[in-house]
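Entries read chain and fold; for instance:
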Amino acid sequence: MILLSFDIEEFDMPFEFGKTISFEDQIKISIEGTTVILDLLEKHQAKATFFSTVIFAINAPEIIKRIINDGHEIASHSYYHSDFKVEHLKESKDKLEEITKTEVIGFRMPRMQPVDEIEIFKAGYVYNSSLNPTYIPGRYNNFSKPRTYFKQDGVWQIPASVSPIIRFPLFWLSFHNLPLWIYKLLCKATIKKDKYLNLYFHPWEFTNLVDEERYGFPGYISKNSGKQMNDRLENLIIWMKKKNYNFHNTKDLIDKIKSKSI
């Protein structure tokens, strides 16, 4: 069971590297990347979950409409990408449901930061996919957390996938930098152990990020961005389909967990 997810948001990451980028460009770049993703998913008939900020959803209505029409899941990525208050949990859920006319049951905190599970439960979410159960220097150390799904304070936790034993993270940065054959081997081992794989990416990765003057990104972020990213993900999807792995949204995993069929 393959869970592809994409965090669709204001592209504000250049601020972390001392660069500025207009709000219009933040939205434009994320729309461009999300369109590439949707075209790729449509081509290979693969379903996914899109964790959207409310600000992105308001400013990209046609993209949100296409996500829903293509049969993907919309979940919450909070109200704003770089500003968070507890009340944004419920406000983002309510607003996304108003925009999409669908039930929003999932949440992912921007930058995979910790958030109070009790508050997530009170806001009405069924699952939270904000945990990367590994060590990322300068970000988090979650070696003490479970690798796979578990329940906490009434909310199902759906961690990002990491490999068995050494907990090597299979998130977007690994996908950019590892040789693809090694990444596939780690995915295969993880699926064999866990029965599912939870991977996450961002739309701006599918645009050209090598302009250091504009973005300030080091090579480990800009490597294999743009067309190379699209080609690599297509390669991975084709390989997974040949392995008879099935693509689902995160709601489907929750249903399987509840029915104890995974």
About this structure: DSSP finds eleven helices and eleven strands in the chain. The chain has a mean pLDDT of 97.
